[in-house]
Specification:
Blueprint lengths: L4 H17 L8 E2 L4 H6 L5 E2 L3 E6 L5 H18 L4 E6 L9 H6 L7 E6 L2 H12 L6 E6 L7 H14 L2 E6 L11 E7 L19 E8 L6 E8 L4 E4 H5 L15
């Protein structure tokens, strides 16, 4: 692994500045998804902090779904924990990258995100380990659309760092990813059609809320769980698609007419 000394110094200076200028976050052993049904499906009735969680698309075309679901979890993480978040991703023009308008659509303040773009997978895993050593961070995100080095040993190294600092790591993996790891939970995400918010059939339909088919394939209790989930960007939380679909559209009431 070859990392320029200048880049190492710069990253360490940024982490040191965070440590010197921030107060240690309050203990938050669980992060709620905002949806009671999903929280109750998790081993501790919430997303455990200080550990690693893995997210992957159900197929190649579901990469955007996996990234969108990860942004939702990131928004929940930033909502309940103070401090900045480190986003680690490989330098690849053909892959999906975050940008400010997309972050704000999920209720994420781009000013709290520090994106670290790296050339090699080994560099990305090293950067995540170093970032997880800083307890003043809200979280650490790693994006690995293709992987060769990430395995049980490397995931255990990340888990030990996360447990020590209490910082949560989200690792986005390829749909082809296999093998064991020490991740606390593993999610598989697929795209799902969203309902248009425009109820006027004569008007041009608009994009609805982001919706996914979520498969929790690993959660520590041996039971696989599935939900159809939508993202509520107004409340910055997840919700069940069935519950949202059953809500009647709000319409203006006609004024009562006097009779007599």
């Amino acid at each position: 692994m070859t990392i320029p000394a200048r880049d190492i110094r710069e990253l360490k200076q940024r982490i040191s500045a965070i440590s010197d200028g921030a107060e240690a976050p309050m203990d938050a052993p669980l992060i709620s998804t905002g949806c009671l049904e999903i929280d109750l499906g998790l081993p501790s009735a919430g997303l455990a902090t200080g550990t690693v969680h893995e997210i992957a698309g159900a197929g190649y075309r579901d990469r955007s779904a996996a990234l969108g679901f990860t942004l939702g979890l990131t928004a929940r993480l930033l909502k309940e924990r103070p401090g900045p978040l480190i986003w680690c991703q490989l330098r690849d023009r053909d892959r999906l990258h975050i940008h400010a308008p997309g972050l704000m659509a999920f209720g994420i303040d781009p000013g709290r995100i520090t994106k670290v773009t790296l050339n090699q997978e080994a560099d990305l895993l090293w950067a995540m380990e170093e970032a997880l050593d800083c307890p003043y961070l809200a979280g650490v995100i790693g994006i690995l659309w293709s992987e060769k080095l990430y395995n049980f040993t490397s995931s255990r190294r990340l888990s030990l760092r996360a447990k020590k600092s209490g910082v949560t790591a989200l690792m986005v993996r390829s749909h082809r990813a296999n093998g064991t790891s020490t991740a606390k939970t593993r999610w598989r995400i697929a795209n799902a059609p969203s309902e248009s918010p425009n109820h006027d059939k004569t008007a041009l339909p608009r994009l609805g809320k982001a919706q996914w088919r979520v498969d929790l394939t690993r959660c520590g209790n041996g039971f696989e769980k599935k939900w159809d989930v939508v993202w509520n960007h107004e409340a910055i939380r997840f919700d069940l698609a069935s519950r949202v679909a059953n809500r009647a559209p709000v319409s203006a009431q006609e004024p009562a007419t006097a009779t007599g």
